[in-house]
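BUG: 3D viewer hangs when loading the predicted structure for this chain

Environment: internal workstation, default settings.
Expected: structure renders.
Actual: progress bar stalls at 90%.

Input used:
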Amino acid sequence: MKKLFGFLLVAGMVSTAFVSKSKLETSSVVMKDGIDFQKSSYDEAIKEAKKSGKLIFIDAYTEWCGPCKKMAATSFMDPEVASLFNSKFINLKVEMEKSTDGPMIAQKYSVRAYPSLLFINGEGKVVKYAVGYQTAEQLIAIGKSL
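Structure tokens produced before the viewer hung:
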């Protein structure tokens, strides 16, 4: 009888943990926050920047870059950062080694470290260039300075 009770108790705890995990995974999938990175090309972004007068923000990253992943999961997801960047910039996230525009952008703007954050005007000129992991507070300061 004790063995049966112990088995039921453990089974109940496992099923509770499974349900809790499922609820967490579901809620994180439904929630959409953070910087809204456009799916457009570099050339399309330049045209949009000329037309709108906004600067282009490029997150120049690679798949293997640890600080890039951390920034994507933290700083770029900050609500204040997202609000500022989504209203003020045309946001592009460019994988520098594998995307169509990545190698060209890396060469054109001498990107040599990751993450590199580029702020570019409609003429393709760099207005601001930051290298390395940036906290939400640092991104807000940069965004407000431009």
